[in-house]
Structure formats: structure tokens, C-alpha cells
Amino acid sequence: MFEERLIDELLEVTSELGLEITEEKIKFEHPAEPIFGDYSTNIALVSSKFQTLNPKFKNPKELAGIIVEKWREMGTPDFVEKVEVAGPGFINFWLSFSAFSRELEQVTDEQEKYGSSIKGTGKTVVIDYSAPNIAKPFGIGHLRSTNIGQALYNLYKHLGFETIGDNHLGDWGTQFGKLIYQIKKENANPCKLSIEDLEKLYVKFHEEAKDNPEREEEARKLFKKLEEGDKEVREIWQAVVETSLKEFNRVYELLGVDIDYAYGESFYTDKMEAVLNDTKEKGILKESQGALVVEIPSSPVPAMLKKSDGATTYLLRDLATIKFRKEQWQPELYIYEVGADQKLHFEQVFEVAQMLGYAKKENFIHVAHGLIRWPTGKFSTRKGDTIHLEEVLNEAIQKAKSLITGANGNEAQLSREREEIAKKVGIGAIKYNDLKQNPRTDIIFDWDQMLSLSGNSGPYLQYTYARAQSILRKAQTEYPEEGRPAEVEEDKVSEEEWRLLRSFYRFPEVVEEAAKNFSPNLLCNFLFDLAQKFNLFYEKEKVIGGENERFRIILTSAVGQILKNGLNLLGIETPEKM
Ligand code: ARG
Prior knowledge:
By secondary structure, the chain is of the alpha/beta class. It has 21 helices and 14 strands.
């Protein structure tokens, strides 16, 4: 990647000048306007302290000038066209035409591997995502975790990391005591209860418990029984789990998501005692009003591991999960893609895990996503009015049908093909709407925007991809020769072609950035920008039968390849026609 090579070059130049500049200090940006080059660094501006070290460098501009002079003196590498000082002390770099051409060749050669790397080799990342709660429909509340988590998984994998996805299903906890109480009270056959029935029963428990507070106690006892492995209670629970998983799998099927593991909270039933022992050994387990807690110096609230009735907590299960993951996979990084409302929970989990020596706080990251809102307000998930994700996904597929015009064939084929494309487009629209925004912000669920063929949407990108493919299909029939990047003279490259040519190399950079910052939205921004540039090019230039024809076909193919690689990393499929 050019950025790394530029850093190496700059380090050499600055060390030659006797400046103490380290790699981390060198930051590059891509100037918004091409007249300022392809890369810009403010290294001379941030290195003001060198003025005291070297009084001869009076100001950043002068320092920048000295660096640039030295750079030229030492010989500009062939991937750089020119280097200049700009403004108060920026150093701008222009990449050379040959560098861009080689990059284009690389896209053509590497195809679906373009943008991947082996930087993560030898490092393991566990990604904890999706994690819906059983006995409830898969609600829209777990959509973001599923989408963002899957995108992060794909990104890390693409960078060569050993990636492990774990669906930490919410299948344990005191709420199951309540549900089981209600099932027993109503004499219901647990195997015959639908997910909606289960949800209703849970709501009913709460309604009835208002007037019968003693039921809370009964429910607690039932959860205790469940934890102790009571056969009857355990069987009811098992039936509930099975019903829920069937439901979830339908949603995962629609989303095209397949998570490596789904240990779930219940898996840790017999692994929590070991954590308690660890806390005792470290001398940090305290009793507080009958509960077992660990006090965290930096937090006003202690972490509760066991409630006063002896029931284990969500937090204790998370600690047992870390211990297990550490023993199983020795990960470098534990990524939790969970809503921002669990911020305190994870702060506590990470603190205690560190106190126990399971991992360091730096090894954990909670990618705390914001809420999904309707244009008119927040989705409410209380009182049982969960918005069922499956319904939303099916609605998206239905709506996507109106966008599809490119399918062809006889009636039966046509409708089958349309169904398939509509699924890709509808689901893509939902995913992209989620991923294009910073995970940490709230997002709006707006059908018109999501399905717009002209704005920053999944369908727009898919449409652009399909357009590129349609050009390539045409080129293939008219010019079936094998395509390597065609020689084109630099001064024959039009502005629109230039814009495209100068974008490709940023794809591998952005893949890395998106992973490093846990922000798939950075990749979305790049893809949208590329698609816009391509559509502008398409409007202005005739690809087949125009000037630079071979070159334009290759450009089109590179755009298609990068859109495909990028969308696939986001978990979005790319139909060949739309
Ligand atoms: N099931 C939980 C919920 O819906 C999310 C679990 C997240 N992962 C974790 N390791 N705690 O709130």
C-alpha cells in the first residue's frame, strides 16, 4: 500500500535530517480536491517541538520545505510523481500514473482477493454478535448487532486474522423462571407453544405479578431449580430453546448470516463456579447484603456475580465466557457488538476480567451501537410489542421487487429470477442502511431512503454493480479477447477516467481502517464515492465504441470488482442484473 511506502520514505528522509519522527506520528489524509495531490501530511505542523531541537527550523512551513528538499535530493521513488509544500506547512504527494496503472493491474489480477492482506496472520479475534434472547421473536433490536458484527467478522477475516464468531444467545437468566412459572400455571404444553405464545406468557406473568407479588419469589425458585438441573424444569426450558432457535434460523437464513458458534449463556452453567473460585483466590469477592460482588475501584457500582437468592448473573456468565474463550482460542482481541445501553455492564466485565488476569482491558472492545428509530421515534420493545425482524425483512424483499427491471426470460423464469434478486436487494437495503452510518449513532429506518436508487443506499450500489456487469457482458460478446489493462497514454486519460483510476488504491486502505476503527461505515463511504464516480464516468464517456475503449472496459471491470468485494465484506450480495 502506498501509504506504508510513503511512511517508510518519509522516515528515511527525516532521519537523514536528524529529526526524531516516529512512525505513529506520521498521519496521512487524502485531500478532498485532486489539485492538492493524493496524500497530504501535517507532520511538519505537528512537529513544532523540533523548533527547539533545531532552532534553524523557524516554522512548520520552513520545516516542510526542508523535508521536501531532502526528499527530492534523496530521489523520489517511482510511485510518486511530485511532492510539494502547501499552506502553512502541509506536504502534499502526487502518485504517479504508473503507480495507478499498476494498481489497476493488481485489481485485475487479484480479483476477489483485492483488498485482503495477511497482516492479521497469527492473531485471533473473537467477535461476539447477534445474541438474541430466546422465548422472544428475533426483534429489530438485534439487527444492528447482527449486521455490524458480521461485517466486522468479514473485515478481520479479509485481513488475515483468525476470526471466531460467537452468538452469545440469551438463553439463561431469571426471566426463564418467570416464563416457566407461567407455562406451568397455565398447564401449557411447552412443545406446542409458538414464539408469540411464549412472548405473551412472559408479558402475562408481569401483568399478573403486579397483584400477586409472591409469584416473583416462585419464579426465582424455578430459575434456581433450572440452575440446579431439575429435570422437569430443564425440559420445559429445552422446548423453549428449540422453538426459539427454529425461529432465529429463519431470520439468519434470510439475512444470509451463519455464525461459527452459538454457545449461548446456558453453556456456562457449569463454568461459573470456577470464576467464583478465581475471584476468591484473588481475594476480591465480597458479600454485600447477601449478594456476591466484586468492587471496582474506578466504578461507583460493584459488579454483582450472584444475587442474594443465589442466582447467577449475566455478568458472571460473561466472565465465564471470557475465561472459556481465552482457554479455547487465546484471542488478541475480544469484540463485543452490543447496544450502547450495555456500556456499564461491559465496563464492569472488562475491569473484573482484568482483575482476574483473564486479559487486559485493551484486549476488549465494546462496539456500542445506537438505536434504530422510525422517522417518528424509537422502536419500543417493551410490553411485548417487539417489531419482528422477519416481517421487516420480508417487507423489504417485497418492496425491492418494484426496483427490479433487468430480469428476463419466460414468465416462470422471470418470476424466479426476480424473487432472487429482490431478496438480495431488499436484504442489502436493510444491511446497508445500518452499516453506512457510524455504529455508535442512532439510525433512522426510512424505507424511501433505504430503497432509493439515487442516494447512498444498498440498491444504488448494487445497481451500479449490475450496470458495470451489463457493460462487461456487452463487451464480452463484442470483444471477447482476454483483458489485461490496456496501455493508455497518460495525456489521453479523461478527467472522469482519472477520478476512477485515482480511487482504487484506497480500497485496501479503507478495509484496514474500517476494521481498525470498528467502523464498516468507512467502507460504505468509499464504495458510495466510487459508485458516484463511476456513474459520472458512465454518463460522460462512451465505454464501448468510444475512445480508450479497452482502457474503459478495464476500468469498468475494476469498479465492478471493488464494489463486489466491498459489498461482500459488508455481507451484501451483488446481483449481476437488476
Ligand atoms: N442477549 C443479550 C441482549 O440481548 C446480548 C448479549 C451480548 N453479548 C454478551 N457477551 N453479553 O441483551
